[in-house]
Amino acid sequence: MSPILLAMVLVGALAVILFIVGIIASARGPKATIKERVEQYAGAQTVAAERPKPAAGERGFKRMAEGLDKVMSKRGVGGGIATELARADLKLTVTEFMIFNVISVIGVAGLAALLFRSPFFALPGLVLGFFLPRWWVKILQRRRLNAFNSQLGDAINLLVNGLRSGYSMLQAMEAVSKELPPPISVEFARVVQEVGLGLSYEDALDNLVRRIRSADLDLMVTAVNVQHEVGGNLAEILDTISYTIRERVRIQGEIRVLTAQTMLSGYIVGFLPVAITLLLLLMSRDYIMRMFQTTCGWIMVAVAVIIVASGFLAIKKIVTIEV
């Protein structure tokens, strides 16, 4: 297949996918319905508010988009994707994420085929395009989790002050949602809203732990649930947990500073060969392409990838210190 024909096919496929994305986005509307909001917080069922009736074609697209999203969300893979999107705080449905994943697969595969001027290189592009959106979600999750953990000590301290001043636990959480910045304010606001929608106190906290996979948060929720069952001085317990979390965050910060140079060396070791290969591909394509045209060249590439990946993983394992 010639590069021009391959580019035309890819542009046509991307245009069709973008058209489907536009249909689903227009079907959902600019604002979520009351049912969608309730399901986001507690999974409860309610009657949607009265809205102007859309046209017949728009209703058909909306029913198709909602039905497809419900079917995808109920599947094992779709349910896992929905959980991952919630942890990353991405305002995407499962169907929209799958469509973006297809766009990534086609786009990266086409770019690889055009860059190397060979359809054979579309296969690695398919694999890379499939995992790129998932890596992006993982990066967002890690950033959000780090931000949440750094704010958790202050949040617990604010909860302790609220309890000692006579607030209930729910009122103290509402104060946290108003006083602290996101993401911790958003998560505590969800807990307050879930309880307000009729969910039990324990279930709302369990949903919080499910969205935020933090060992420190799990410790706090466990202490709150135990105190709710057997009683005790919750303010004193949370004060001790807050001190432990703040010290852990401080020690982790010192470790990151001390291991930053080694981690930078690992990134250089991992990405420098890739950068040099791309640079040679742009400067002297005939020279570098000889390595991809023989069996010996492919063996050299495979060995190089294994050695570089092993070195990067070894460095990362050394500098990763659990506190």
Layout of strands and helices, then pairs:
Blueprint: H1 3-28, H2 34-41, H3 56-74, H4 76-88, H5 94-116, H6 122-164, H7 169-179, H8 184-196, H9 201-211, H10 215-230, H11 234-258, H12 260-283, H13 285-289, H14 295-319
Helix pairs in contact: 1-3, 1-5, 3-4, 4-6, 5-6, 6-7, 6-11, 7-8, 8-9, 9-10, 10-11, 12-14
Domain unit count: 3
Main sheet specs: none
Parts with pLDDT < 50 across at least 5 consecutive residues: 23-38, 40-51
Strand content: under 5%
Shape: elongated
The percentage helix is over 70%
In whole angstroms, how far apart are the ends? Answer: 55 Å
Count of extended strands: 0
Characterization of the model:
By secondary structure, the protein is an all-alpha fold. The chain has three domains: 140 residues, no CATH class; 113 residues, Up-down Bundle (Receptor-associated Protein), CATH 1.20.81; 61 residues. The chain contains 14 helices and no strands.
